[in-house]
Specification:
By secondary structure, the chain is of the alpha/beta class. The chain has a domain of 131 residues: Ribonuclease H-like superfamily/Ribonuclease H (Nucleotidyltransferase, domain 5). The protein contains six helices and five strands, in the order βββαβααβααα. The protein has a five-stranded mixed beta sheet, with helices on both faces. A hairpin with a 5-residue loop joins strand 2 and strand 3. Helix 1 runs parallel beside helix 3. The longest helix is centred in the last third of the chain and has 17 residues. The termini are far apart. The mean pLDDT is 87.
């Protein structure tokens, strides 16, 4: 049976992966990717940052930062903030949006997946040990660390936490993207709005 590929897939206890490894989308609000990274402070403290990003326009929709670990509750808050940032205070998304993350317990927890589905998000996970499957988010982490983190003072966690909103804002408003024809995410979004003739 194995030779003829007639066996069922091995049960791992993990949710079935629905991500097909094509990350970039043709329009905004089709797939949002999620990732997290650490910033080491000079006094030994660690700041952990999690963010959501649109896979088309590359805008950082929302982020959270903490000196503790990233919990499932924080991930659910990030989901809610992302939805509100793009669609306002709604009870549910107007259409399904994929939520791409890695296989960390905070993202695959039952409560997190249930909340995502109730809001209209479709949780997708990247393959284990395959960071390229979430390449846009991984690329952003490298860019953010290189262009923003390592060139500023990192005395302590309080200083880093104070800097983050301005750094993310600068990335969204000013930082040119080759994939966006050398425009920043917000400039690109404005150009799409102008091209569509939408007054908003």
């Amino acid at each position: 049976m194995k030779g003829n590929q007639l066996l069922l897939p091995k049960h791992t206890g993990r949710p079935v992966r629905t991500h097909d490894e094509t990350v970039i989308t043709m329009t905004s609000n089709i797939r949002w990717c999620f990732n997290a990274f650490e910033i080491g402070c000079w006094k030994g403290e660690r700041v952990r940052v999690a963010f959501s990003m649109d896979c088309h326009d590359r805008e950082i929709i929302s982020f959270i930062a903490t000196t503790a670990g990233i919990s499932g509750e924080m991930v659910r808050d990030l989901m809610a903030e992302s939805i509100e940032a793009r669609f306002g205070p709604v009870d549910r998304l107007p259409h399904r949006i994929e939520w791409l993350s890695d296989n960390g317990s905070a993202y695959t927890a039952h409560d997190t997946r249930s909340f995502a589905l109730s809001m209209g998000l479709l949780p997708c996970t990247a393959p284990v040990q395959s960071p390229g499957s979430n390449g846009i988010a991984e690329g952003f982490v490298n860019t953010f660390k290189w262009d923003y983190v390592h060139i500023h003072r990192l005395e302590n966690a309080e200083q880093v936490l104070e800097q983050l909103p301005k750094r993310f804002g600068d990335y969204n408003e000013v930082h040119p993207q080759q994939g966006l024809k050398m425009r920043s995410p917000r400039e690109y979004r404005k150009s799409l709005t102008a091209a569509s003739g939408c007054p908003v």
